[in-house]
Amino acid sequence: MPRAKYALRDGDTGRRLARWQDTDGFFVGTTTAEQWWDQTGDEPPEQLEIKLDGLSPEPDLHLPSFRDEEDDSFALGDILVDILDTNEAILGTYDLWGATLETDGDGPGTGTLWANVSTPPHASARTVWNHWREHLPNTDGQWTALPPGERDGWVEAAQLHYFHKAGERRTWPMPTNPATLHGEQIADLASFFCAIGEAFGGPGGYFGSNLTALADCLANLDREPGEQLQLRWTAMAVAEEGLARRVETGEGWMRIFDIATGVLEQYNVEVLRG
Fold it and tell me: How far is CA 97 from CA 94, 212, 253, 254, in A?
């Protein structure tokens, strides 16, 4: 039987409920990093209708315990959807809630999962996970193979993979000083987060998916109080052009580039043009 690519776990207990091989209707998000400024925080959740192929309930668990007798569906509540590697180990996890599952039987088959999510998994993350299943990033710049507009999926995968590995730990290791931020391919804000994640965490590294998260990462950097970090930023002019969009802030309209460099300066990072 082919290896599963996805797994379903109970959100309260973490128990694995089922696995499946392919999916449709899950990776449908299109939100970009720049749209963070357009969000109000009051956006309603979205309900996904996710098709599951090669669905197989776990043999030691009983989905019937979740069964709704009226329509023969399974009311699962809060759930976790795991992305699995080729050995079926977890690479990263998505949180969903209010989930209901309908299957075509007790054995391997197909099913439909309805669940709510605050931000749908990005469409381009599917491609990233498919590559990471085979080989996690092991050289710098692999994210540049994705065109601008699809790099948000890389940031999403990097974030979920980091948090899966880190568990409850939320301290980022101090990189070699000075760290190097390669700006040659920074064409948008997602590119910036790909590049700075790599600068602080190596290939496939995560160091924020929006500027508030960037500040949080810097605040939790494992360094002595007052210790300065130097960041050598190559091709800074290219990045400056890619981050030239102006957005409204509490201090008026500012370029994303200036906001980003301001966050770095605020947290005692000296930016050096490389």
Answer: 10, 25, 37, 37
